[in-house]
Amino acid sequence: KSVVDYALSLSKKHIQTITDLLNHEDYPIPVGFTTNDDVDFEAPRLFSDTFHLHYVYHMTKMGLTSDTLALSLAARSDIRDYYSACIASSVELQHRAVELQLRKGIYIRPPYITTPESVDFVQHQNFLTGWFGERKPLLAMEIMQLHHNIQTNAIGKAVVMGFSQVAKTADVRDYMVRGKKISTKHIEIFGSLLTDNDLPVPMTWDSDVMDSTVPAFSDKLMMFHVFSLNSAGMGNYGTAISSTTRRDL
Prior knowledge:
- By secondary structure, the chain is an all-alpha fold.
- Helices cover 62% and strands 0% of the residues.
- The protein is built from six helices and no strands.
- The longest helix has 28 residues, at 77-104.
- It is globular and about 60 Å long.
- The protein starts with a helix and ends in a 7-residue tail after the last helix.
- The mean pLDDT is 92.
């Protein structure tokens, strides 16, 4: 609860700061979400406490990525100061989430690999082989990307599973079910690549979705949320492509 409270306090602070900046420039304030229209505080819980903690940790990764990009594109000193503060607060939130996961023994560590005995160099083009021929073992960077993208898909899968249970309209419910199928497929593909290299596959969060069917969030909020996760997922895949050598990956 303390980690979630801290995350909430940061969100409120960011909203106020951005509002003040826009008001100062006479820009219209975007219409976002309200506690009256988009959240039902009387609805039963939709996710477990463990999932809440891991979810906050996952969102800090998204925040650090987007804030760092925004900082690199900003020219005004006050905007650069603001995004610098955002990065610092996201780092602090991530530290709190990681430390608590470690204390509770629920932090999902990436696979361990043995330390190489010497530096090696690529000698042949077959280093890139992926579909045909003998495939090289996964590089550490490739292992990390597969592990990370399994985790992000596992988070997304759990989120859309919960949302599909409480969606008010059939179109939104069908969209969430489709998202679940896509996440499941990606997890299976990435997991098989790790398994083929005798590496462990991180757990999913399916069992941390409760059985409530009472709408806790508006369809508008849930759709926007999944849109944000999709955007982050595409960015993750772009990063993975840029650091991967095997053609099949």
